[in-house]
Amino acid sequence: MFRHIYYRHNIWHFVQKPSWYMQNNLQLISSGISLIDEGWGGLYKGSNYLLIGGHKSGKTNFGMKFILEGAVRKERGLYFTSKTRDELTVLAEWMNLNSQHFIDSRVITTVRVIPPDKDNLSGTPDQDLVDYFDDVIDMIDEYYPSRIVFDEITPFIRFKDSTLLELILDKFKHKLESHNITSIIISSEPVTDAMSALLQHLADVSNGLIYLDKEINDLYGTISLLPYIEHKSGELKSNYVFDSDRGLKIDLSVLNNLDKKRQVRL
Fold first, then answer.
1. What is the pTM assigned to this prediction?
2. Is residue 221 within 8 Å of 240, Cβ to Cβ?
């Protein structure tokens, strides 16, 4: 199912999660990303993760793999994106992913996000932010998804009131946790102080950071995993490449080296 929604903004920070958090959030789910699933054992169910990367670094490819991994397990997903349905279909075909079947069967609902017109704003930036998250929460109540991807959040950032931002994000975080939804928020790399502040807020409601470092014209890039709560293997870093047949392909030799180090310590 493909829907359109005219919305407005989004934002999230860094905090160490207490030990009781781990004791109540131990269920891991498959992400569809080999380094995460084999290195971390998956992502914690009911948690949010922040994905940051430059232009054409593979962020959408990553998000689609995550949402489609849930679909094959019959987990309903919401995919918020500014891309058109045709653009997503072409990308999925290039990745050899049968997304159309899941969209047609309504296992996945793609939500077309229309960026606000900067020259003709209907309200204040902060009100746009409130409206945006209210729209998201309404769709959660309507579809009861298990997974959500926001691809991507950066074009909708114009907030001014940081206190309001924290309140909205706290409300949003509790909504995800109460519905046991696992989400990935995708963002471009920060280029301004305001953008850096936004990502700091985003990290506060996230359980880990996934960073894709790749130049536009380069074939190879580096993926880094930074857990904000305890994850198997802890921080991980590896190389990746866009394969013409399989999309995002990650070098897993780092895990073999990690296993060897563990054996030496044992």
1. 0.82
2. yes
